[in-house]
Amino acid sequence: MKEADVGNEESLTIHPSWKAYPKLIEELDLSKNNKISHYGEPINAFELIVTTKKKLDWKCSVCNNEWRTTGASRSKNGKGCSYCNGGRLHSDGRNSMANTHPELAKEYQGDATKITAGTHTPLDWKCSVCEHEWEVPGHNRKQGDGCRVCSVGGFDPSLVGYVYILHYKDEINDWLKCGITNFPKKRYKRLSNVAKRDNIEVSQIDLFKFDDGYNASNCEAELLEQGNLRFSSTYDIEGKTEFFRFDTLEDVKKIIEKWL
Fold it and tell me: Which end of the chain has less Cβ packing within 10 Å, N or C?
């Protein structure tokens, strides 16, 4: 354990496992987690390991929703605010897409005051740059997915393409990253160096070559539409919109092989 300043609170003892979850530190409601005991001894909530099975009080940093759940549910399972992440809309609209993600509201083909950005319901979008129209859940857009026509991210579909599967691992979790590139060695090196800054280990699981780069691009698009396979991470690092749960490896491979 070590001493750390949490928000504007006085210096508290905090278990090092919380380091990888800055959002959880921000949303743990210390005003309500003040009667916790461990083996009969009173402690502050941050002294518990972040994957604790004790139920703790949380307060959403976006909409101020309050709820109780275990540390394990939030860290291991990636569960967050049921309003912002689960698509529930507050009666006063405080967490509507129009309020929380106005840049997405501009492209949503509907009333952004009556829906949340994190909904898993497929929505209609129209790109504000090229006017391309497509359908994808709000959750995908919130995670960073954009127009596939004008946001190619440096990938040239006219060249040979590669779809890669990488294994990401920190002290708590294992997960996958799937993406496309024309230059796999350079891409792997860059992603590894970026992840290393957050003490994340990266290794390659598989690499698939596409002679037709457009098929690689379409394959990635289908993968990113699989909201039920995605992994929600608190790390703000390059490629975070392409994370998948580790236990979905075989499902991911099946989708890729379909496009080969």
Answer: N
Query: What is the token pair recorded at 84?
Result: 């912002």
53 and 30 within one domain: yes
Which runs of consecutive H residues, i.e. helices, occur in 121-259?
A: 138-142, 184-196, 213-224, 249-259
The per-residue pLDDT for range 5-33, each reduced to its tens digit, is 444 444 678 899 998 899 999 999 988 88
Whether 95 is in a domain gets the answer yes
SS3 35: coil
pTM metric for this prediction? 0.46
Residue 162: CA atoms inside 13 Å, Cβ hemisphere, count?
Answer: 14
Last residue of a domain, one of 107, 123, 146: 146
Structural domain count, the chain: 3
pLDDT of 148 reads: 67
- Measured between its terminal Cα atoms, the distance across the chain in Å is 49
| pLDDT reading at 59 higher than 90 | yes
Backbone angles phi, psi at 172, to 5 degrees: -115, -45
Question: Where is the domain boundary, 120, 146, 172?
Answer: 146
